[in-house]
Amino acid sequence: MGWGDLGGGVLGQPAKETPNLDQMAAEGVTLTDFYTANPLCSPSRAALLTGRLPIRNGFYTTNDHARNSYTPQEIVGGIADFELLLPELLQKGGYHNKIVGKWHLGHQEQYLPLKHGFHEWFGAPNCHFGPYDDGKTPNIPVYRNAEMVGRYYEEFAIDKHKGVSNLTQMYIKEAVEFIEEHSNTTKPFFLYWAPDSTHGPVYASMPFIGKSQRGRYGDAVMELDHGVGAILRTLERLAIDKRTFVFFTSDNGAAVSDRAASGSNGPFLCGKQTTFEGGMREPAIAWWPGQIKNPGTRKRRLPGKLEVFTRVELMLSVKFLCHAEWRPVFFYRGNEMMAVRYGFYKAHYWTWSNGWDEIKVGIDFCPGQVLANMTQHEQQNHTARPLLFHLGRDPGEKFPVRFSSPEYDAAMSPIRRIVVEHKRNLVAGTPQLNVCDVAVQ
Amino acid sequence: MGWGDLGGGVLGQPAKETPNLDQMAAEGVTLTDFYTANPLCSPSRAALLTGRLPIRNGFYTTNDHARNSYTPQEIVGGIADFELLLPELLQKGGYHNKIVGKWHLGHQEQYLPLKHGFHEWFGAPNCHFGPYDDGKTPNIPVYRNAEMVGRYYEEFAIDKHKGVSNLTQMYIKEAVEFIEEHSNTTKPFFLYWAPDSTHGPVYASMPFIGKSQRGRYGDAVMELDHGVGAILRTLERLAIDKRTFVFFTSDNGAAVSDRAASGSNGPFLCGKQTTFEGGMREPAIAWWPGQIKNPGTRKRRLPGKLEVFTRVELMLSVKFLCHAEWRPVFFYRGNEMMAVRYGFYKAHYWTWSNGWDEIKVGIDFCPGQVLANMTQHEQQNHTARPLLFHLGRDPGEKFPVRFSSPEYDAAMSPIRRIVVEHKRNLVAGTPQLNVCDVAVQ
Ligand SMILES: [Ca+2]
Ligand SMILES: [Ca+2]
Questions:
Q1: Which residues form the signal peptide (chains A, B) (predicted)?
Q2: Three-state DSSP class for B144?
């Protein structure tokens, strides 16, 4: 989902179809400058759960330069044991942990959620790709805890043609029941609710089909929004809302290349798969009645997924703080640091939309957007003189700060120092996502 | 100002710097599908005040095909006496009327506001262009009622270089004092508050300089927002808020061609001067405590400036209704009907961004946006087979509905009938904006 997929208040998504998320924002805090650590699903989720950049936690590939990669079924890699995951950390604090939905941190036995801090799981190791033949490529399995209980398109029906599936309803039910079960105990709980219906092939359950003004994608967004509402209302009904912290975000910006299911990244450039704002700036709402001062406000200074992790560490000592200072945000694509944000400035060291091989078959990560030296189809190295944008004046990354201006020198000076330090301290993990599709060996 | 210039709630403008407009929206109704009648100032304002398309009320030019035009100082035309203006209509209903700020419906004596239904005026017949030499082109005059009281850049200072002027503060003071004076009488009042600080050269008063995260343009938006707050708080303080209807909108989408003062049109295509959504979809908020049911809600079905006029006619009998049915919206550029919207569908009969002559000197109405057959620099006639978009699924007008699809035929069938009827009934007014700049005679 993208920044522009949320509605309420004044003039976000024109269709205004996310009343529950809007209410969550009105009662909580919206973080306007929140970033994912990667514009693609697996690395983003690995970063969320480890608090470390994909290049550190191994969720990247060296197959090719600046290549995005995830965990298809063919992948042999996954999350390393020595990584300390959020549920593992919470387990030490006495939490009971459940994941509902998509995992994406590795398919093999040793990589599954129950080996990495979760006590319960209902969902799948991968997206609902398929249907596949029953031969070489089996359909994606669905698990209840450590046990496989069926497969997508088989026991867990998805009508890809009509875009209909009951899966999100099942995930909602799992979440509500888990909260109900654990509301009366003294033991705290952690629920990682990770539905995947807005990922292509987009689906919704029958009551949501055709409900949206935005087509199938909008139907799926409405059902997700409904799920968020069901979860928050459950917390209120059980009177545990004042001791439950809820955080909403997405793994990457909306995919905008598919005309039938295009999400919205609002005023931002491009979308999923890119390190432009449209690929990495995420909707992010924190909710905790009674604990969040000034409900309905917005904060800029909480820059990204790695922060969520730090924040949860703090929460174990029941503290919820906002950093008063900017921290740098690094934008990686595969093995390359493409850009850095510091304060309002974002410097692009490398730029690329996607390659001609994909463009030729109609895949375009930036449809309708063409900016010289930014969205071109060959990778460009600007390391000697990065392209600089002021995201306050120019959130769409359209008007680069002039190289010859005093502003350029003043902004780039701390950024250059930050990059030197970052690269000096970087210990790259073993790439887990090599051989990330059948075509690349 | 553009759709994307407003902040609050969830995820509109990333900088979130319009708390007063956001509060107004939370207490009122946001109209998500509200259009101006023209993507340029003079024709848009003429349409707002007459309730008629510029091609009917004469605010267009036949100098050139599909040419935008306004009222520079050299213009001899203006608003015709026989047009029934909103203040004239209200005068019949016993209202006392004042305009504060920019008029733009003609410079000559006979076209000024006090000849067309306003009882009071403080402002100028034109934007704050200049400074000019004192010879051939005098600076724009500023009026109090029928009397000229000075000129921009002379008695009414604007520091164009620093972007500083006290004008918006003067306009706020005028508005508040007018409301105070008329709050105790039994006679109803109408205030047309038309500040122009977000128009280039953008300005703000000293307390707002550097206050925004968005540069000078953001400073001006913040001061406007502050003015809206001052007006609403005055109504509340005088306890007349429950009998005062307030409507906020803009004359055209944000200009996006100026890197120093680029507004935001959110997810929409291009900006001011174009008939794409970025040029004509406007922020629009209606506020009337006690009268508006379900505060904070959004309505799609109140399609444009012409509706405001109808609505005010209804208000004279103290009624505020929302149409339950879609009405067609016509998108004109000068003398040409460029596009039509009906329901969720928008059909482009002509497309154009702007010409090569302007592009060569760096003026681009669609910076960074390139869509085949849409944003090109020559006018294209699609009348035989209009380009069709579904604005629910695709608010950015990126993915045309396929010509060969059943959807195309189903949607175009009523639109073709609507266009035939519109053209048959159209009585074009005498063009008032010919000779619209010195270069065109
Ligand atoms: Ca571990
Ligand atoms: Ca008249």
A1: none
A2: strand
Domain extent for A381 = 331-425
Do A283 and A364 reside in the same domain of the chain?
no
Question: Does A324 reside within a domain?
Answer: no
List the single residue in B10, B269, B285 with the smallest CB-CB distance to A21: B10
The minimum CA-CA distance between A112 and chain B, rounded to whole Å, is: 35
Using CA atoms, how far apart are residues B288 and B307, in angstroms rounded to an integer?
A: 17
Give the pLDDT confidence of A239-293 residue by residue, as tens digits. Answer: 999 999 999 999 999 999 877 778 889 889 999 999 999 999 998 888 988 887 7
Ligand nearest to the CA of B87: 2
Ligand (nearest to CA of B92) = 2
The whole-angstrom separation of Cα A224 and Cα B327 is 32
User: Are the Cβ atoms of A12 and B368 closer than 8 angstroms?
Assistant: no
Average pLDDT, 10 consecutive residues per value, chain B (441 residues): 71 75 87 89 93 94 91 86 93 93 95 98 94 85 97 96 97 98 90 95 96 91 96 97 92 86 88 95 88 72 58 48 65 96 95 94 93 96 97 92 96 97 96 66 35
Active site residue A422: no
**B104 and B177 fall within a common domain:** yes
* Residues in chain A closer than 8 A to B218 (CB atoms): 392-393
Contact criterion met (CB < 8 Å) for A10 and B8: yes
* DSSP-derived secondary structure for A2-35: -GGG--TTTTSSTT---HHHHHHHHHSEEETTEE
Interface A-B: count of C-beta contacts within 8 A = 165
**pTM of the full structure:** 0.90
Other Cβ atoms within 10 Å of A343 Cβ, number: 17
Q: Which two tokens stand for residue B306?
A: 């012409």
Sign of CA dihedral A249, A366, B16, B296: negative
Cβ distance of B10 and A16 shorter than 8 Å:
no
Number of domains in chain A: 2
C-alpha of residue B88 to centroid of ligand 2, in Å: 7
